[in-house]
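Supplementary material to the annual report.
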Amino acid sequence: MSGCMRQEPDGARADYNFAYLDEQTKRMIRRAILKGLAIPGYQVPFASREMPMPYGWGTGGVQVSAAVMVPEDRFKVIDQGADDTTNAVSIRAFFERTAGVATTTRTREASVIQTRHRIPEEPLREGQILVYQVPIPEPLRFLEPRESETRKLHALEDYGLMHVKLYEDIARHGHIATAYDYPVRVEARYVMDPSPIPKFDTPKLADCPAIQLFGAGREQRIHALPPYTRVVPLDFEDHPFEASKPDHPCGLCGATDSYLDEVIVDDAGGRIFVCSDTDHCEARRDSGHVGEDTA
Amino acid sequence: MYVAVKGGEQAIGNAHAWLAEERRGDPAVAELGIAQIREQLAQAVNRVMAEGSLYDPDLAALAIKQARGDLIEAIFLLRAYRTTLPRFGASRPVDTADMACDRRISATFKDVPGGQVLGPTFDYTHRLLDFKLAAEGEVPPAPERDPATGPVPHVTGFLNREGLIEEEPGVDTIPPDLTREPLEMPAGRPLRLQSLSRADEGFVLSMAYSTQRGYARNHAFVGELRIGAVAVEMDVPELGFAIEIGEITLTECETVNQFTGSKSEPPQFTRGYGLVFGQTERKAISMALVDRALRWEELGEDFEGAPAQDAEFVLSHADNIQATGFLEHIKLPHYVDFQAELELVRKLRREAEEVRSSALMGGLASHDGQEAAE
Amino acid sequence: MSAHAEMTPLLSVRGVSKRYGAQIGCADMSFDLYPGEVMGIVGESGSGKSTLLACLAGHLRPDTGSVLFDTRADGLRDTVRMSEPERRMMSRTDWAFVHQNPRDGLRMAVSAGGNVGERLMAVGARNYGDIRRSAVDWLDRVEIDTGRIDDRPSTFSGGMQQRLQIARNLVTGPRLVFMDEPTGGLDVSVQARLLDLLRGLVRDMGLSAIIVTHDLAVVRLLADRLMVMKSGCVVEAGLTDQVLDDPQHAYTQLLVSSVLQV
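Predicted assembly:
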């Protein structure tokens, strides 16, 4: 896949508004985003629209991207860290078609990045917007299924139950047994669901120069982290949060500090580990880095 | 040498081409026309319009064709299209008392002003496969008579005159709009009814059925079921009066339910209400039963813990487009999360193994005494 | 009560009434509770004692009256008019509530240690080892084998569940404990053990408590003072021994004579 693609001028469809949504809807979503940025970590209800892709497939992220997108943007979509996974391809094609914006696979070149389950390896910079697709925005959901009750718990900062869950993990397993979607506390106020990113990515949420927006379409919620927000994973002093990843170098580019996918390569169960962030891996290989499995 | 999987774009394109071919089926068989679906699969069209929240039989028929007869997929197509339509305004509330009824029955009175009209119903048909239809479906014309003129008043109105059924006072407040505002709990009745009206037929049917089987039983009688066309009117500010902009077919069901009351308050029957696009009586009756079950709080009843009483449960899970999307999204790759879980489980297993082997090495592990049950 | 003349009451109840439609829950209740004091409220079911307790503990909002609590920060404050967050904070720090049915006061799907630790974590404890040590200490104090710390309460007997509920409530060192029939639903032998334990805790910790019960043996053992309720009103009040040994009101006499002396 080439680094940058520009849609032909006639590629944008005239029968839909720029970026598919009508301007009124975009304004409604922007208001929710602004409110979310003003109250970091707070889940803002918004009137999510029915999109031409299924709920649970990124409709929240797509609506947020559509609301912030301008014609000058350069758009990147990743799913599981990769630009060429099917749903990433599909969402990128959607905006090429409805907004005619330029797209890219390079993190550095992108102004808006929509992601599912990963934060890019390359540090983000000021002026970039990272849009997360969020399936369940409520960090308390699996402790308390009722929305009316969880909203009350947030309002009252009643988060004891979150730590009870972590306590139970340690009592049973010796460790906090949450490997992804790790709950965080934002600016010492709201407990927030960061979407199902691996906990390897959790520290990247904090103090990030880019704007981070989280859209949950089916659940009709938007939450946000403005640049340089304090974000702390929930933990215990004597069982501190630990970002972890497979203890291997990337088989393709040799990187030792990137998050890895485990790939089964033969019938005997042979495995190799490769960067989940395909752009990061490609860039490293282009500049001459070589892993063990490329020979 | 390992090469990362690529080519998602091409795979998607090819899959879609194959899908289009499968949708068409054997080219030797004549292609289905939209008009054929609209006219001959009208119940499918009705369901798609009702749950798609868009009254347009031709578009619904197109959606059914495009979805290869998968009605939830067709509903999804219609909903996604609906989102893009500009909103010019809101119609006046339709007046179902003025309905030109094709069907109108009451289970609570043997006869009522306006009469019992069976209409085109499956009721009382014997469910025997009609093999003649496999050959040709031409039917002799049905007997006709002039449409009855004169009013067809609502049956519950008769009960109301005696004060036997709870009043439903009109309200001036503009009801919230489920399609324009996020669903917030607790939801008032207008919002609940909107949600139920576009809810999955199977879900609402099962919920209603559960109330009949004792999970929040509310002793429903079909006070009246009516199906027919009503006029849709809209106020046009430039004109200063309302004009008729079209006609839609609706199914309306009013149930008469168990009474409430006490020594001081005279007993009254209570109501459940269903209103759905098209001829969709299974859905409308189900809706009325579930509406009634959800009203426990305003009627001062107990919450029995029945699913059909739990507004948050019912409304959060009634929409099949939300449900199917989230259900099917687990097909999407989750290998980043799975990798994180894999690492964790391996680590925990490693540590458990170490604990076990060191316990074995240490000879017989001493077991903690357990407190006997008192 | 001259000994109390100089002291600020811990809880001061003034004119609390609660109606259910035409039905009286409790009417115009007023009394003071001083630090270290245990107040028993007795009466048959329907006498209004549980309604009163619910009003005092903030579970029900009384129609009229005030419930003044001597807060650490601001002295006497009316908990009825407090904001919900303040009241919730109070109910997980300075107050404790022991339910009759331990299932109402425990998290049945959370281990015994987690149950005891929850209040600590809710007020900011963030050291697993310390939380664990407190849980062990408290299980020991309520006579639960500390080897059961990682077991769920659903595997415990009724008496153990009730003792676990007490440990879970007392772990943050509350200043006021509300108890609703704490021995109800337990076998007689189990009741005796629990009462003995409660008496020890009340004495050792200098707890202030309000105990609602229909069981005169409970108040005889635990309560310094007693209020007898009937039809939503107090018919007699005084020192426990005084009221039980020399009941003045006909209803109290009936209550006392209808149970075996302890």
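Residues 1-13 of chain A have pLDDT under 50 and may be disordered.
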